[in-house]
Structure formats: C-alpha cells, structure tokens
Amino acid sequence: MRGSSNLFPPSDPERAHRNDTIIFERTPMEFSNQGKNEIKTSTDENILAIPEEKLYLVHFESNDVFFPKNWSNIKKFRVLISAFSFTLCNALSSSMFATSSENIAQYFHVSYEVAVLPTTLYILGFVFGPIFWGPLSEAKGRMKILLPVTFGYACLSYIVSTAKDFQTLTICRFFCGFLGGASMIIPAAMIGDLIPPKHRGRVVAPFSMTVCAGPCLGPIIAGFVLKNKNLDWRLNAYLPSFMSTCTFIAVMLFHDETYEPFALQRKAEILRENTGNWAIHAPIKKSLDLKIVFTKFIARPGAMSKDLSLLLVALYGAFAYGILYLLLSVIPHIFNSNYHFAQGIDEIPYIAVFIGCLLGGVFCILSDIRYQRILESLNTNKPIAKERLPAMMVGSLFLTAGLFWMCWTGDFQKKIPWIVPTLACSFVGFGFITIFQSCINYVVDRYTIYAASGLTVVTVLRSLFAATFPLFSQKMFDKLGTRYAGTLLGGLSGILIPVPFLFYKFDEFLRSRSKYSTKEA
C-alpha cells in the first residue's frame, strides 16, 4: 500500500502541494481496514482543522480499479451486453411492426397508409428522443438515464401489445420510439467510456450488428408469424415487450456508471463511506440546475451540428441507414411482385443483407487491427479519427455497386434467377455496416468526452432518413420501375463516394475548424 496510514494531512508539505490534489490509489477495502477512527470527521471541535478543499480532491490514476477502462473484461461484457440488448430490442420492434402494417390495417379498419403511421411515429421518436437522452447522459450519467428509460419502454410496449384502439397504439408507439432513442446513443457512448481507442472498433462491430439485425431479421420473424393463421400481429408486439423486460432486469442487475466524471464521483462516495472523511470529493457537482442542463447540455448537439465534419459524416451515415430501412419496401417489391415469392418467403433475402453485414463486421474488425498498429507505431493511446475512414471508403463502393446490381438484375425476373439480386443484397449489407460503423468510430474518436452529443446529431439525422425513406420508396418503385428507381438511389450513393476520401485528405483543416474536437496524436 502506498502512502501513510492517514490521508496525507497538510503536515506533509510535499504531498499536500503536489498538484494541490491527492490521487487515492487504495481500494475501498484497504481504506476500510485502516479504521475510521484514524480520520478526523466534521464535528464542532475539529471543523476548523479541515484542510483546503483541493487537498481531498479525487482523481483517477493509471491502474485505478474505479476507472471504467480498467474494469475487468467480464464486467465490461456484462454492462455492454445489457445495453446492446436494448438496441437490438428497439431495432427489431421497428421492423417487425412495419411488416405487420397490412394486418393492423385490417384489424383496426384503416387504410394501409394510416396503418404505417405507428411505425413512422416510432422512428420519429428516435429523432426527438436522442436530443434529450444523449446530453442528459452527460449531465446526469449513463445509468441514471438508461435504467428509467428501459423501464418506461417495457411498460409502454405492453400497452402497445394490448391496445384496443388505433389511437392508443399510435400514441404509445411514438413514446416507445422516444424512449428507445436512448438505445442508439447511450450504448455507443458507453463503448467510448469503457474501451481504449485501439480496441474500440472491435466492440463497435457487435453494436453495429445489433442495429443491422433489427431491419434484417425482424421482417423474417414477423413474416412467418403472420403466415401462421393461428397467430396475429399482436405477437409481433409481444416479442419486443418480453425482450425489453429482460433488458430492464439486465440493466438493473449488471449496470454500473461508466461515464468518467460520475464514475469518479462514485469513487469519492465509496472513499467517504469507508474512511468517514467527509472532505473527500470529486470535481463535479452532485446536482445541476435545470436551466444549466437545458442551456448547456441539451443545446450542445445543436451547437455541434454546425461542425462541418460532424454534419457531413452524419449525413452520409444517415443516407446508408435510410437505405437499410428502404429495403423494407424494396425487397418485397422485387421478390414478391417480380419473382412472386409467398409471404414469409419473400423476406428470406434479408438473410443475404444480414450475411453482408456479418462480413462487413469482420472487415471492420480487421480494419481495427490496422488502426491498432498505427497507434502502436506512433506510441500513443490518443485516437486518430481519420484512420477510421478507410473502411468507410470501401463501404461506399460496395453500397453503390450493390444498389445498381440488386435493382437492375431484379427487374429481369424472366431471364435472371432470384439468387442474383439476392447476392446483391449482401453487397448492400456490407456497404451499410462499414459506413455505419466507421461513422460511429469517427465520431467517438473525434469528440470523445462529447461523444454522446455528437452521436445525438448522427442519430437524429439517420432517424429522419429512416422515417422518411419508406414513405416514398413504394410509390417511387411503382412509378419508376425497379431499374430506374434503383438507378436514382445508386446515383445518389455514387455522388457520396468522395465524402470519406475528402475527409481523409483535409482532416487537419476540418479538425482545426472544430470547436469540440479532442486533441489527437
């Protein structure tokens, strides 16, 4: 154990004046074992003897067990898996409900366009929710936001599952999306809290897969549920309800605060409890004025959206995400209308999209190994955001090629077998996941401490794209035809190909213009 048996009183001038702070290096048990009687506490007799405030200011040190990046791999795994399960639950819920729209229309006696409204409002909830949840997780801590949000989401999900009228269904779906928006922000920010930069990409990969798994696997599950005449659309609402309940229990049991300022506050609380020294404190206030929360934290994403590099990379990620949700309309159009697949079977090509996402995830992990070697060659642990972009460069080519290939071959069903456009779907999945994951890695590395606010901008834009793309996709493909509608999408994707290349070339200029960018190697 380093240091004396007390907490370095002011009589030790060398330690009392070393940076005017003390870095407590002992564990709570060690402090407890030293005995509370050795520490003077605040009584009427000794209150004047309490040293300066800075003397008992707590900080993290390199091997600190309280520092989230120093937690055991098992603890990190438990925390991240419970958070990722919330993301998967939300992604599945959006796509499974979208697949049930026709059955909902029949049940509530509304038009198909009206029956799509619960899905649209759910995704619009993703637009408004992150505006609050991301900044609030920086103001109040990840745990204080994630726990009530998962509980509220589970409760509303059961109301949706048992709704007796369309109005209740629609309103509750919006608020489910509003709460579910936290699942797109907080887990990604927690990766930045827990994982060092050189290993971060490998953990972003499974998070990206949970986002991709919803739109890819949800329609398949929902399609086979609806094909069974003994089941109805409510089962597609009950499944996410059950998942969200399990997620809430997992968060309650396994979660701990990961955001560094509040993890440090937790350290100070444990040390105060185990030593009886009330003067120990962390450099953060326990409560924030509501006005400060709104003017400083919630307004921050709006201020960050003026950052050119964040705005452009968020728009590109949003376009790729919108394409993923657009496939909810395109794939049934190609394989049901053109190839005459039956319901349930026409969702099978989503497996090809998911396989493409899996291969893209593997590619991103290999790209992360390259990133790690770059950091090791520079002998630094500081992130280098621009080195996340090469994976996005490759993904931009695959996405564009996949869109042209899928839509042109899918329009010649009499000459080209169904497997050909199905293989093209894997290219679209590969392109999406590499762009999406590179976008998250880039934002987390570039903005670090403000990662949640930066990811809020990314999530709001991509949710807008995901909500609006399916609204016009069906009519666009009906009027233009599969070939020409696909050409329009592929052309837009092709125009965006230079984005990651230009970002890489002019990275230093963009970083110098950024107010919130962290210092890089």
Automatic annotation (TrEMBL):
Domain of life according to the entry: Eukaryota
InterPro entries according to UniProt: MFS, MFS_dom, MFS_trans_sf
Entry coiled-coil feature ranges: none
Localization (cell): Membrane
Membrane topology value: Multi-pass membrane protein
Keyword terms, alphabetized: Membrane, Transmembrane, Transmembrane helix, Transport
Transmembrane segments annotated in the record for this chain: 79-98, 110-133, 168-191, 203-225, 308-328, 348-369, 389-406, 418-436, 448-472, 484-504
The protein, known as: Piso0_002894 protein
Record organism: Pichia sorbitophila (strain ATCC MYA-4447 / BCRC 22081 / CBS 7064 / NBRC 10061 / NRRL Y-12695) (Hybrid yeast)
